[in-house]
Amino acid sequence: MPKTKSLISVVDDDESMREAVRVLMKSLGFTAETFASAEEFLNSRQLPRTCCLITDVQMPGMTGLELHRHLVALGKTIPTILITAYPDDSVRERALGDGVVCYLSKPFDESDLLAGIRAALST
Question: Cα dihedral sign for 116, 30, 37, 18?
Fold first, then answer.
C-alpha cells in the first residue's frame, strides 16, 4: 500500500525518464520529486524528506552509485533503487553489496520497480 506522505526522489539526467517515473509514482499514489543531477538532489530541501531514491547509474558528474555511497558516508541511509540503460554485472554486484535495494535495467517493467519501492519502504 503506498505511503502517500512518503517522498520518492527521482534523479536522472534524462528528462523524459525523470518525468515518466514521476508520473508512474503519482499514478501509484506516491509523492515524487525529480532532479536532473545528484548535485541538484543533494542541494535540495527534499533530501531530508526522501524515503526512497530512484537514480540513474550513468549521469554526468556524480553517478547514481556514487550518490548512494555519498549519502551513506553522510549518515543518510536512504533506500536506493538504481536504474541503468547499460547493465553491468560487476556494477550490479558492487551496488547490491553496498546496500542498494534494487538494480533495474532500462526498459524495466513497472511491477519490478514497484517491488523495489515496496522493498525500499519496508526497510
Answer: positive
Sheet bearing 102-105, strands edge to edge: 31-35, 7-11, 50-56, 80-84, 102-105
What's 7-121's CATH class? alpha beta
- The answer, yes or no, to whether residue 4 has pLDDT greater than 80, is no
Q: Where are the beta strands (DSSP E) in 50-118?
A: 50-56, 80-84, 102-105
Q: Across all residues in the chain, what is the average pLDDT?
A: 93
Instruction: Look up cell 538494480; give the residue.
Output: 103
- Rounded (10°) CA dihedral 2, 8, 11, 14: 40
User: Would the pLDDT of 109 be above 70?
Assistant: yes
